[in-house]
Write a structure and sequence with these properties.
The protein has 442 residues and is α/β, with parallel strands linked by helices. The chain has helices at 3-23, 31-46, 67-86, 91-110, 156-159, 170-202, 208-212, 215-223, 227-239, 253-272, 296-304, 343-355, 375-380, 411-435, and strands spanning 50-58, 123-132, 141-148, 154-155, 242-243, 281-288, 314-322, 328-334, 339-340, 365-368, 384-390. It folds into 2 domains: 3-63 and 122-153 and 251-435, Aminopeptidase, CATH 3.40.630.10; 65-111 and 163-243. Helix content is 48%, strand content 15%. The strands form 2 sheets. Strands 1, 2, 3, 6, 7, 8, 9, 10 and 11 form a 9-stranded mixed sheet that branches. It has a two-stranded antiparallel ribbon with strand order 4-5. Strand 8 and strand 9 (339-340) form a beta hairpin. Helix 1 crosses helix 14 and helix 3 (67-86) packs parallel to helix 6.
């Protein structure tokens, strides 16, 4: 680690330790999330940044936090299949319930839409950011460094792999996929059965009446007395997916106190070294709220500033989890969100990795296969954005569990992330001078 940056790196690691060990778990919209946001706002003010705090409403349990709810829905559908077999007219409301639950699951849990948020309990979250302006106050473009202040609920199945970490990690991971996959199959199976039975008893098709009186349907009806028992049991794995109690939630050292800390300390570095700062560049350090609740903070920021200059001619380096040596990556796409991030920034990260001789298990470039990251709302708002991570993408024992603690990784790994960010910002400055701003390059 270069002497010039060592103080900033150790400050970043100290922020990570404070967030995880002193403040603790910071669930979306919770009191501890606000404490960390206030803590970062105070630090930004201490180094002379002009700060802004923007509150917004969030329904923490309407998106990824609702996975246990899906399990309970699956149990309810399974159990309600019994009275429906006695009174067939019940298949119709049960079928409507299944259809609406799937609309909610696909739109909210998978695609992160906010359509159903008002049906869930609302909390208050916040985005906090501080601006570092050039000495003359004039700037041509903005570089936004962002990380999220909140942490995840404890994923019980992931945490159970802790005891396999020194042996073959797949011995712990494969059972997770089997359990969760079985739960998903159970709910899909019961959904299809309910919809099939609703259509069959509707009598709307010529085959319905003969089928109801067939020998196959008689056998199928007998089997249907046993299937819901299996599907209700399988749904229990989804109910247990995350623990609602804050005291056992993730303390979020890696995910994502590292991102918030690096966004702040890199900005502080440029405050102390104006000669290193790209010409005519405004730098913003942003602590985003409620990312774990479905990117709600970055969505709120994009909505709040739609059409404003802060989102025009702007570059966003979203920093999300810098802890795992050997897994330095630029994340270029959210597959679930159907959003491809900026190719210019992607190349800048790849070139920086090469200059710093950073080698990655995955070649330094990955898609985010599940969920989403804060680059998606920023990209959709017209900002050039990618997400920078150093995190093993396998479902590890410390990802979204109470074992995500700073003692697991070193300041040197955080320092390598610091170096990468400096290198990319230098490239952004050179790109601006040569090309200006060319918009989001998918």
């Amino acid at each position: 680690m270069r002497e010039e940056i060592s103080r900033y790196v150790h400050d970043a690691y100290a922020i990570v330790c404070h967030a995880a060990n002193v403040i603790g778990p910071r669930l979306p919209g919770g009191a501890n999330e606000k404490k960390f946001a206030d803590y970062m706002e105070a630090k930004m003010q201490q180094i002379g940044l002009k700060t802004h705090k923007e509150p917004f409403a969030v329904a923490p349990r309407s998106s990824i936090g609702a996975v246990p709810t899906i399990g309970w829905i699956s149990v309810a559908v399974s159990l309600l299949a019994y009275p429906a077999q006695i009174w067939p007219f019940l298949w119709f409301p049960l079928g409507f319930f299944v259809i609406m639950s799937w609309v909610w699951i696909i739109s909210s849990v998978f695609l992160y839409h906010t359509w159903f948020d008002k049906l869930f309990r609302q909390e208050k979250s916040q985005n906090v950011y501080g601006e570092l302006l050039p000495e003359d106050g004039k700037y041509d473009y903005t570089v936004i460094l962002s990380g999220h202040t909140d942490t995840s609920w404890n994923w019980k199945h992931s945490e159970h792999t802790y005891y396999n970490r020194k042996n073959n990690i797949w011995r712990g991971i494969i059972p997770i996929y089997i359990k969760v996959g079985f739960s998903a199959v159970c709910y899909i199976l019961m959904s299809l059965i309910v919809l099939f039975m609703a259509v069959t008893f509707s009598g709307q098709f010529s085959w319905c009446s003969p089928f109801i009186h067939s020998e196959f349907f008689r056998l199928f009806s007998k089997v249907l007395w046993f299937v819901p028992i299996i599907t209700a049991f399988g749904s229990a794995f989804l109910i247990q997916w995350n623990d609602p109690k804050e005291e056992v939630a993730s303390p979020g050292a890696m995910d994502d106190a590292t991102g918030v800390a690096l966004a702040y300390t890199v900005t502080e570095y440029y405050r102390d070294h104006p000669e290193k700062r790209p010409k005519n560049c405004r730098i913003i350090a942003m602590a985003v709220g409620s990312e774990e609740a479905g990117l709600r903070g970055s969505m709120a920021f994009a909505r709040e500033h739609k059409g404003e200059e802060i989102l025009q001619n702007a570059w966003n380096i979203n920093i999300d989890s810098i802890a795992d040596e050997g897994y330095f990556e630029v994340v270029i796409k959210d597959d679930w969100q159907f959003t491809r991030f900026d190719k210019d920034l992607e190349q800048m990260f790849k070139d920086t990795f090469k200059d710093l001789k950073i080698e990655s298990v995955n070649g330094g470039c990955i898609h985010n296969p599940v969920g989403g990251c804060d680059s998606t709302p920023m990209t959709r708002a017209g900002v050039k954005s990618v997400t920078f991570a150093a995190q093993n993408p396998v479902l590890t024992y410390y990802y979204h569990t109470f074992r995500d603690r700073p003692e697991r990784f070193t300041p040197e790994t955080v320092g390598k992330g610091f170096e990468v960010i400096l290198g990319v910002i230098d490239r952004i400055g050179k790109f601006q001078e040569e090309h200006g701003y060319n918009g989001v390059n998918h």
